[in-house]
Design a protein that fits this description.
By secondary structure, this protein is of the alpha+beta class. The protein has a domain at 43-74. The chain is built from 2 helices and 4 strands. The chain has helices at residues 32-35, 59-70; strands spanning 2-7, 10-15, 45-47, 52-54. The strands form 2 sheets. The protein has a two-stranded antiparallel ribbon. The longest helix has 12 residues, at 59-70.
Length: 85
């Protein structure tokens, strides 16, 4: 069963599963995420009162986002790591 409803400026989606038996993994089996349903959400952009902000609309946005993870790395040579920049 699912439903969609609005509250204020937000839209909510809700899913309910009924009559589902509990999951019991076998010994040495993969983790729960391998078996259980998952929802993947990709946000291309969102609107504010002043503009539209791009999040992950294309590869350029993805490149910029990945850049935030490495922009503050120390780029000095590191003998401990076994490599240089």
């Amino acid at each position: 069963m699912s439903r969609r409803y609005e509250k204020g400026n937000y839209v909510y989606y809700e899913w309910i599963a009924e009559g589902v038996t509990s999951f019991r993994p076998e010994e040495n089996s993969p983790g729960l995420a391998y078996f259980l349903p998952q929802v993947q959400i990709y946000v291309k952009s969102f609107k504010t009162s002043h503009s539209t902000r791009s999040v992950l609309a294309d590869l350029n946005d993805l490149y910029r986002w990945y850049g935030t993870f490495v922009k503050d790395l120390d780029q000095n040579n590191s003998p401990e790591a076994g490599f240089t920049w």
